[in-house]
Amino acid sequence: MFNDNSQHFSIHTIGCQEPQPVISSPPEKLNHFEILLLQKGKGSLQLDGQEHLLAENNIYCIFPGHFRKLRFTTGTEGFIISFALEFLRLSDSYSNSATWLGQYHNVASALICKEMQPELEIVAQKMKSEYGNLFDKRMELLKGLLNIFLIYFSRNLNKLPHNDAPNREKDLVNKFIGLLKTHFHTRKFVNDYASLLAVTPNYLNRTVKKITGFPTSHHIQQQIILEAKRQALYTSESMKQIAYSLGFDNPAHFSKFFKNNCGVNFTEYKNQQQKL
Predict the structure, then answer these.
(1) CATH (residue range 5-156)
(2) Using one digit for the tens of pLDDT, what is the confidence trace for 3-15?
(3) Residue ranges of the HTH araC/xylS-type domain (predicted)?
(4) Residue-wise burial string across 174-193, b where 16 or more C-beta atoms lie within 10 A, e elsewhere
(5) Class of domain 167-275
(6) How far is CA 52 from CA 18, 45, 74, 75, 196, in A?
(7) pTM for the whole thing?
């Protein structure tokens, strides 16, 4: 693995054979993109507490910032690829193959068509082989192979609903989502993000709702709730500590906010999740 965060890349095989019936990874917060290529078998992906089933001949891309836990059953085979977007962008062969990453915010998946499956597997195997040696120009070759792999991925990608919005509106929404993930601890109002983006609150709200189907305030609330759930699931912090870390001056206000958005209070949610 390359230690420089901007140059992070790793690839490993998935292998679950007898007598170990299941491989299970501990919950981990991802700092980089992670791709799962399942050639054979099945498993599950727990992403911020939500369960997603994994099936063979499918490929999944998990986005940074999420807590994820993986489980694979006996006989599962495939690859796990982890990379920083900068690793790809710094390549001489970068061809904007990963521009589709900006359209998703948690996980993207694709069913691999039969014609493409051998190609993806060959490129993945070449990356694994190159990753394990110290030949000259190793990093550049890995970047090129990853670039090719993502092009194949994009051809198989489950398409988003068609949207005829102008690119400038889509760019605005993507910038808003990026700012939200960085500033939600301290900025909780539409005006805050409109100011950062140099647009009016009404225009931002109208554009975000047009592209996503939900108003700006909904995304702000859901980002706060998502982080609260992450901390409830994966840390030993108390409700009071989590409330303060999320910028709430009064834990009682946080408790009311959580229940209004989740339907149960914080303690009930945590107890329910611990029983699963």
Answers:
(1) 2.60.120.280
(2) 446 578 999 999 7
(3) 174-272
(4) eebbeebeebbeebbebebb
(5) mainly alpha
(6) 24, 5, 18, 19, 35
(7) 0.67
